[in-house]
Design brief:
Layout (H helix, E strand, L loop, with lengths): L2 H31 L5 H19 L1 H10 L9 E5 L3 E4 L4 E4 L2 H4 L8 H13 L10 H13 L4 E7 L2 H16 L3 E5 L8 H6 L3 H4 L9 E4 L4 H13 L4 E6 L15 H12 L2 E5 L14 H4 L5 E4 L11 E6 H4 L17 H16 L2 H20 L6 E7 L2 E6 L2 H13 L2 E2 L1 E3 L2 E7 L7 H17 L3
Parallel strand pairs: 3-13, 5-6, 5-7, 7-8, 8-9
Antiparallel strand pairs: 1-2, 2-3, 4-10, 9-10, 11-12, 12-15, 14-15
Length: 462
């Protein structure tokens, strides 16, 4: 083949491939546009999803789903929401969503007010110019100053939880001119390198060591260890810039702080001139029965991180809210920490509508009420199963069920999945599974979850 015909052949192949891709995109866009799909289409979607996860996303996800679901259900492919608290898979099976997208659906799936706010904004302007002043950013920042505890006043916006932690770390460094951070064992703050430095799970950290310098971990809840670490840091000239904590640990297994712990941490921070960062990415926006978990303990942090449910389950959105004293480190050069899409108008519209709904529907109080109900119900269901269940604990609708072994946790997750209840382990471990439904879950749905849990426990031989 001459060079010219070789080039022509390559070009023709490229054109063929592009026309195939064009047809494929048309097919997918057609499916997205449909309200209902046929059985044949559902089969095509399932096959495409499984094949492409295996060949182009990560086959590990298929193996993972297989280990937490029964028989061939690992091929369960989600397709659409079903009311506020459920979704259905591509074959029409309905699941009560007790995972809540790891805590993103506080106001329910596709709350009409949040959807409408985003559509309204989208119809006018999708993203911001990046140069003129964008109004919704300003209004959302004012709203956050009003609803967050104490004198938290200025906000930086990002797109995810991990981005908010990165911003909080940089802010604390700018403010203090120190580089030492104290985080907690079992903490989860995200997986980008800064936030991963605070995250405590060895499996996620080890291949990427060394982390950013200056992070130390102390046992969550151990105030003596925290004090001694502060003292050691001061003695060695490595004064602490900030302590970063989830007020209630989510991914680490729904761990509540011991009485007085967070108040004592606040005192130590003040004594040693360190900042207190609360990561409320999972506990914020009403999840634990108050708008922010900090309110249960009467502790005001210097910096608070929000994400997950902040975007109302519609838009990715996150915020870092700090006191003026701290945030003013970013005043002289507002470009010290920026990101193109953070605080975009669609995300801000979603967050403003989310806060509106949380207030209008009194959802933090509902989380407290339904949380108590579910906690009691799950505890009763677990009674007589102490050979399997160690503890059912939680606050509001952040509930953890700890089992004697990982294997029992997997069996329970599988059994619940089979019965149409989606739950998840914590830190990819099923020893503690999480019940984290939308705050809009109904009593009837809660009863179904509790009954399914009891049936599954009864059916498992220890
Ligand atoms: N912080 C906490 C407490 C979280 O639970 C998570 C995610 O689970 C993160 C931070 C990271 O958030 P993202 O996954 O949006 O980066």
């Amino acid at each position: 083949m001459s060079t010219n015909s070789g080039v022509r052949h390559k070009q023709e192949k490229l054109i063929d491939r592009l026309s195939e891709v064009y047809e494929y995109t048309n097919k997918v866009l057609g499916l997205i546009a449909k309200e209902e799909i046929s059985k044949e289409e559902a089969e095509w979607v399932t096959r495409q999803t499984v094949d492409n996860f295996r060949d182009h996303v990560n086959p590990g996800f298929l193996a993972y789903r297989k280990s937490v679901t029964k028989d061939g259900q690992f091929a369960a492919v989600e397709w659409k929401d079903s009311g506020a608290n459920c979704f259905v898979d591509v074959n029409g099976k309905e699941y009560i969503d007790c995972l809540g997208g790891f805590g993103i659906y506080n106001v329910g799936h596709r709350h009409p007010k949040v959807v409408q706010a985003v559509i309204n904004q989208l119809n006018r302007q999708a993203l911001h110019s990046q140069d003129l002043l964008d109004p919704l950013r300003a209004m959302l920042a004012k709203i956050l100053a009003d609803i967050t505890p104490g004198d938290l006043k200025y906000s930086y916006f990002g797109n995810s939880g991990t981005e908010t932690i990165e911003a909080a770390i940089k802010l604390a460094k700018m403010y203090s001119d120190r580089i030492t951070f104290i985080a907690a064992t079992k903490a989860f703050h995200g997986k980008s390198l800064g936030s991963l430095s605070g995250t405590a799970k060895g499996v996620f950290r080890k291949p990427f060591l060394p982390m950013i310098p200056g992070f130390r971990h102390v046992h969550f809840g151990d105030i003596d260890m925290m004090r001694k670490t502060f003292e050691a840091c001061a003695l060695t000239g490595e004064d602490v810039a900030a302590v970063i904590l989830e007020p209630i640990q989510g991914e680490g297994g729904v761990n509540l702080p011991p009485d007085g712990y967070l108040q004592q941490v606040r005192k130590l921070c003040d004594q040693f001139g360190a900042l207190l960062i609360f990561d409320e990415v999972q506990t914020g926006m009403g999840r634990t029965g108050k708008m922010f978990a900090a309110e249960h303990y009467g502790v005001v942090p210097d910096i608070m991180c929000l994400a997950k449910a902040f975007g109302g389950g519609i838009m990715p959105a996150g915020a870092v809210v700090a006191t003026e004293e701290v945030f003013k480190s970013f005043f002289p050069n507002p470009f010290m920490h920026t990101t193109t899409f953070g605080g975009n108008p669609l995300a801000c519209a979603a967050a403003i509508a989310t806060i509106n709904v949380l207030i209008e529907e009194n959802l933090p109080a509902r989380a407290a009420e339904l949380g108590d109900y579910m906690l009691q119900g799950l505890r009763s269901a677990a009674a007589g199963h102490s050979d399997k269940v160690m503890e059912v604990r939680g606050l509001g609708l952040l509930i953890g069920i700890e089992f004697r072994t990982d294997e029992i946790g997997y069996e329970v997750s599988k059994g619940l999945f089979d019965k149409g209840v989606l739950v998840a382990g914590t830190l990819i471990n099923a020893k503690t599974i999480r019940i984290e439904p939308p705050l809009t879950i109904t009593y009837q749905e809660a009863d179904k979850v509790i009954a399914a849990f009891k049936q599954v426990l009864d059916a498992i031989r220890s």
